[in-house]
Every structure is written in structure tokens, then in C-alpha cells.
Design brief:
single chain, 110 residues, alpha+beta, TolA/TonB C-terminal domain, 3-stranded antiparallel sheet, two-stranded antiparallel sheet, 3 helices, 31% strand
Length: 110
């Protein structure tokens, strides 16, 4: 007797977290520019990744590429965790799941 083996792959589909409020344009503003960096005319781009919780809030901010200024990077993470809100990602059953979200903050003096 020959036995057939069937393998079934389970595909887990998670819809990604979606930023609320125009893709995060208001998460970090000129008012958040660190005073010393502003005085020294320092600019740069901070790349970050956060974990978006099932409640839609950002947590565990990690700098993935520095702006070159620690105070700009710290301010970016602080403001993202404080202000960022998302529609959380969901699994194949529509249940909210944690999911990473990556983006950047452009620090530019205007």
C-alpha cells in the first residue's frame, strides 16, 4: 500500500498598520526641534521603526539610521511614541495584531 503525504501550507495574512492623520505629517513639527540643534542649524533625517500595538499606539521606537545628531533622533522617537496613532494591523480573522512600522522624520530648519 502506498501512502501519500500531503502538506498544507498555512498562509498568515496580516494587513499592515495604517497611520491616522495624513500619514503622520503632524507627529513631529518645528515646535519639536531641539533648541540646541536649532541654534547650531543642524538638520538631518532620522529613520525609525516602531511596533504598532493592537491598540493602534506606537511603542518600542528604534532608530534604524541616525540623522547624525543624537538629540534629533531622540526627539523623533519621543514624539512618534507620544503622538503616532494607527489603525492596527489585523490577521486573517480581522483580529488586531502587533506589526512593525517604519518611516522617517526630516529635520529641516525653515
Amino acid at each position: 500500500m502506498t501512502r501519500s503525504v500531503f502538506r498544507v501550507a498555512v498562509l498568515v495574512v496580516a494587513l499592515t498598520a495604517t497611520p491616522l492623520h495624513a500619514g503622520g505629517k503632524s507627529w513631529v513639527t518645528m515646535d519639536d526641534y531641539p533648541a540646541k540643534a536649532l541654534r547650531e542649524h543642524r538638520e538631518g533625517t532620522t529613520y525609525f521603526t516602531v511596533t504598532v500595538g493592537t491598540d493602534g499606539r506606537a511603542k518600542d521606537c528604534v532608530i534604524t539610521k541616525s540623522s547624525g545628531s543624537a538629540d534629533l533622533d531622540e526627539a523623533a522617537c519621543e514624539m512618534i511614541v507620544r503622538r503616532a496613532r494607527f489603525d492596527p494591523a489585523t490577521d486573517e480573522h480581522g483580529k488586531p495584531v502587533e506589526m512593525p512600522y517604519s518611516n522617517k522624520v526630516n529635520w529641516k530648519i525653515q
